[in-house]
Each structure stands twice: as C-alpha cells, then as structure tokens.
Amino acid sequence: MTVQTLDTGRDIEQFAAKAEQWLATAVPARWKNDRGSLTSHDMDEIRREWDFILWEGGYSGLSIPQEYGGQGLGLAEEIIFHVLAGSAQAPDGLARVGKSLVTPMLIKSGSEDQRAAYIPSIMNGTDVWCQGFSEPEAGSDMANIQTRARRVEGGYLLTGTKTWTSFAQHARRCFVLAQTQPEAGRYRNLSMLLVDMQAPGVSISDIRQISGAVHFAETRFDNVFVADSDRVGDDGDGWGVAMRVLGDERGGIETAARYVEIRSDVDALLAVLGDDPRYADRLRDLDIRTELVRWQLAKIADLETAGDEVRLARAGAVLKLMWSELWQDVTKLGVVHAPVAEHHHWTYQYLESRAVTIYGGSSEIQRNILSERVLGLPR
Amino acid sequence: MSNQQQQTTVRYAMTTMPTDFGQTGAEGIRDLVKRATAQAPIATYAEDPHPPISWDVIAGAGWDMAGIVEDGDGATTRDLVEIAREWGYGCIPQPLLPTILAKRLSSVAREANGPVTFALPLGEETLIPFGQLAEISVATTLGTDSGTLISAGDGDSDGLDLVGRGIRSTATVTTMTIEAAREVALVFAAESLGGAERLLADSIEFAKQRMQFGRAVGSFQAVKHKLADAAVAVESSETSLIWGSQRPEQAFRSAVFAVDRCIDAAEIAVQVHGGLGFTWEAGLHFPFRKFLSARRVVESLQRSHG
Fold this sequence. Notes:
The structure holds 2 protein chains of 2 kinds.
Chain A: H1 12-26, H2 29-34, H3 40-57, H4 75-87, H5 96-109, H6 112-123, E1 129-132, E2 148-152, E3 155-162, E4 173-179, E5 190-196, E6 202-207, E7 216-227, E8 231-232, H7 238-249, H8 252-273, H9 280-306, H10 309-317, H11 319-337, H12 343-353, H13 363-374
Parallel strand pairs in A: 1-4
Antiparallel strand pairs in A: 2-3, 3-7, 4-5, 5-8, 6-7
Chain B: H1 3-9, H2 20-37, H3 55-60, H4 77-90, H5 96-105, H6 107-111, E1 116-118, E2 120-122, E3 125-128, E4 137-139, E5 141-142, E6 149-151, E7 156-157, E8 167-169, E9 175-176, H7 178-209, E10 211-212, E11 215-216, H8 221-246, H9 251-272, H10 274-277, H11 285-305
Parallel strand pairs in B: 1-4, 5-9
Antiparallel strand pairs in B: 2-3, 3-8, 4-6, 7-8, 10-11
Helix pairs in contact in B: 2-4, 4-7, 5-7, 7-8, 7-9, 7-11, 8-9, 9-11
C-alpha cells in the first residue's frame, strides 16, 4: 500500500487538525455545558451567533468559491468539518438553507447583482433564508404549484401558500417557486422569486410535528410585491432553477450534517446496548451503514472531481435513501430497546425521524428517480 | 508495503478512488472480459471446460502479475478491489484473482509459471479455489517470504461456487499474515461485487424486454422499486469495500457487509426474472452461488484472523 494523495492536492489532515483546534475554543460554553437549561429563545440566539462565529473563524461556506466570500475548499472539507463540529458539540447554525441552497443557486443561476446583494449577508450569518417550494397541493408532484405571481409594473404581486418552510420564523428572505405564466404548460409556467419576509402581506404559522417540535411553518403570501430584479433566471425558467437546487438539497452538505446526528445516535446505542449479544448483529449493521454514509459522500466528492458522470449519477441517487432509512432503523432500535432513563431522547428521535423519508423527496420519489433516470427503466 | 505508516497518519483523508495503476488495470480487464464474452449470457460459458479466456491469454498479457509491488510501486489494496470487481463481472472460470493475490503475497508464487491458489479455512474443511485445475499449485504461506508451492491434492469438487472450480478437502490451510488475510477477504468480496453489478445490469435489461399485460414489466413501480433497492445494495457494497480497503482494521467487517449486499441484489435479480430466475438455464445462480461461497470464506477468514 502506498500513501495516496488527494486529486485536489489539498492537505486534508492539516485542515482537520486546524479545524479541530479552532473548534475546541470556539464552541460557546453555554451551549456545550448548559444546553439542558436553555430556553428555545436562548438556543436560537446561540445558533444565530454560531453562524457569525463560523464566519469570523474562516469556516463559513467552506465549499463556496472565495470570490463569493466562501473558503474555496471542497466537499471533502465540508464533510470533515461537520464531523469535527459534531464531536465538538457545536450548535447547528440557522444559515443552512442560505449556505447550502441559496448560495449555490445564485452562483449557478443568479445575476451578478443578486450574488453581490445576497451572498455576503448569508456568509457572515446576518440573513437567514427559507425555501418556498412545497404547497398543500404540491408535495411529491412538485410541479403542481398553485402560488401565483401576477405581473405588475416593475415586478410581480405574489399570492399563495407555501408549506414545510424550515427556518421561516427566523428568515429574512425566502426563495419561492411561483406560477408566472398560467397559460404555459407544466414545467414552463414557473419562475423563481426572492421574497422579503418582512414585506407587507407575508404571514407565517407554525406546524407542530408528531415529536412535539416545531421545525416547519406554513407561509402565506397575500399580494406581496417582488421586483423583477429579484427573479432568478428568466420568467418561465423556475423549474430548471429549482431542479438544480434540489440536486444540492439531496446532495452533499446536507448529508454531512445528517451523518453527525446519526453517528451520535449510534454511539449512544452502542454505549447502552453494545455489550448485549441480542443486539450485536443489528448494532453492527447500523454502525457500518453509518460509516458508509460518510464514505458514500467522499465517493461522490471524488467522482465529481474526476468527472465520472455515470458513476456519480448512481452514487448520488442512492444517498438520501441510504441515510434516511438508516436513521429510522437506528431510532427504532432505540425507542424499543434503550433503557428507561433514555426514553425521552429516543421517543423524540424516533418520532422526528418519521419525517426524513418524506421531506426533501420521499423515498418513493427517490426510488422512481433512481430506477427511471439512473437505471433507465421505462416510465 | 508501508501499511503501518499509512494507518497512523491518515485520520480524516478519505480517498475513494483507485490510483492510475488500478484504473488502468480495471479498464484493461473490462475490455478483456467484454471482448471474450461478447456480452454472452453467463450460462453459455460458466461450465464450459474451455473458458472464453484461456490462461495463456491471461498470463501472456501479464494480468497474473497485476498485484505485484516492487520497490513500493504497484497496486494498492484499493486498486485490487477495482480490478477484482471488473473481473467478477465476467464470471469467467479462470484462477486470475487467486493468482494475482498469491503472486502479490508470496515470493515463491511469484517465481511460478502457471496459476497459483491457496487453501482457505472453511470450518472443519479446507476450500482450495480452482483446485480442480491440473496445472495449479497451492502457496502454503501468504504475506511472508517463507513457504513453498505444493499440489492441490485430492478432494471433492466444490458444488457451491461452480465458477470457482474449487475442491474441498482436509488439506492444511495456507498460513496468512493478518494483512494478507484482509486482502484475500476484500478481493473475494470485490469479485462478488462485480457479479452483483452483472446481475443488476442483466435484470434491468430483462425488465425492459419482458412484456406482460401488454407492457414491459420494468415499467411497473413494484418492479422498479425492487431494482432501485438492488442498486442501493450494490452501491453500499462498493462503498463498503472502498472503506475496508482504506481502513485496514475494518477490512473483514467491510467484506462481510459487502457480500451480504451482493446476496440482497441476487435475491432481487432472481425475483425480477420471474419464472426464469430460478432456472439453471438462466444462469443467475453462477454469481449467486459465488456470493454464498464468498460469504462463508470471508467470515471464516474473519474468524481465524479478526
């Protein structure tokens, strides 16, 4: 065996060592030590502060090019940083949607003015974003968008209801998929609009989940004005812009964060059930599948660098199925078999994890995409 | 091999790609398999006494030497996985992979002209892959420069892995260092991965062609989703072997997991082929049986070396 160097030539070990050192002092002590006694308001405040700390420390937007205020590194560093941040018990910032969806969308499909106006405040943690795609009548059939944006002088008036908007309560802006050409056919009738959440006509209401948590909201737009300059891409190109965003959502950075949570749950199970031979086979399976989420991500990053489109397509298409169904299997073992003292945690995680095979493209949609678009089976 | 050196320095770097050596080797094997089989069904050649690729062609091109490392230069474990996967796709009954391993891991095997194999523990018995071949010799030691080459001796034909043409006997098991045993396990599992890729590809093709109720069975969502699950299994198997080849202490665990996913994919392949799936004629059982054999070999190596 010879030591292999990364194709990118970047020194991953050095990056990891520096990041680990930085995290040891950067994570707020209140979060690390007193999380149990924090109110949800305190927790939100610390999560917001964490976005700023990341920016100051030079760890915001690791895979975003430097010209847009990122660090100009790659998916490999994103994965490692998430893993290290997880071990250092760092908070999860609020800027996730902005960094992993909005910024790549603006880089791929936005205008120079939009990039200049919005990316810096995402990178430095000032502005939180949320995503307005799903609607009550547009779930798996996402193209069935009913929200309308009517043409007016200089822009649009937006009216409709979006659902499952994570971070809506904190968000300064929302990127919204809306019908702008009602007469045009399916997929050609939509535009992507950047909406000010403080504009008159925006209202939000919480959606409580079966776990008891409130991660989502329903967001209503009632004749909200959106300027032409806040449309991403051409009028009628919204579907294409959205599809490129979803590629990111189902992809790398998001999964790295998931890996950290699943790893921590599996470690917790190993700690309490690891010595019991009755669970040895299941724990071994869960432990290996957890590591494979991380290696699948690394494989995707390498195939992307190598430009191997064929293998990349399949490797990417299985990723969400791999982690979402794994996490459900993990929490199921916990909720049934973990000791009484941990019932609260496992009940919450189990009920929380019911959502992951539904949002972000349900498991059924994932299997359709994989079998039709990647394996080439007939529709 | 600078095994220990790598283990102690690599904590976070996750290199998943083979080196140029492995990539070139795998491409060469892929071409060889493709030209020799002309995409013929496995059943047309798996039991043929004259396989579609002769040993002379293999040795003439030097493929049996593909694993040899000289002055630190040569195939990595990751490279072997990539090469074994391409070979496994063909299900060609020639002792290429045991010979590559033997010549990599034994200096006496390196001197031998013909194919070389080794004797694997299988519970109370010994399995010698390709022990049915008259011209094959068996390395008594892998991983150190001691040992000799002996004949395979007598035994019963292995009835499980028909492509592997092995014998079961009570011969002495080949002595392996832990590093050697890990590579053997990974290569056997990677050969299965290639077979699973083949079963997936053949099943997709079948589901596109086979008509029932006036439409291709592959257009039914129930069938599509099964094949999607087979694709997840094959991806997981590959990623597991990448992990095991880069983290030697995980080699056995990763190989067992990888072969289990190949078996998952084979079960789906049989189901998707319907009535044909469980016939000898269709030939899905050649890779399927190989997976079952590999599963036993890998677990047995884990038990003796893990």
